[in-house]
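User: Can you predict the 3D structure for this chain?
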Amino acid sequence: MTSKNAAANHTIRNTLYLFGGLILLYSTIKAYLLRLTWDEIYSFEYYVKKGIIILHSYNYIDANNHLLNTWLMELFYNLFGGKEIILRLPNLLAQLLFIIYSSKLSMRLSSKVLAVTAFLLLNLNPYIGDYFILARGYGLSIGFMMMSLYFSYKFINENDSFKSAFISVIISCIALLANFTLFNYVIIQSLLL
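Assistant: Here is the predicted structure, written as structure tokens:
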């Protein structure tokens, strides 16, 4: 790689991180200003405040318990208190994962314009962005899924070591703990790898 290409890659990477930082700042402000939703309140009141880690019996509302989210909510609640932004912090951190790994994937595109466009399309999607500002499992699952996709890409397209495939499957299983709708993703990805 020539120094000119390296400088261009460095500029594009910094551009993506700048956009990513602005997106994360916007999400943080929105998460701070937005009142808790009914689902967030129920998860907090029923699972976190009562210290229910694993359910022993289930009822119709237990689908509201996204395990990884509930565990992280309890951890952050015990460490930092019950402010709304604290309960949503795990999902904001998942957005950081999403930004980092979507930028890494976007940088692998041949055109730098296409790399920036792909990154912006992934990260400015308002439907996905809203998942990162709520104390629910969806943002966590999407953040970990993007990380898993990156390691899958490295293993499949760049002939990286088996370690990348292993990391990808482990991370997709963590994403599954955040939201059980990723079950199909985990099965297909494991078979593909």
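The chain has a mean pLDDT of 90. The radius of gyration is 18 Å.
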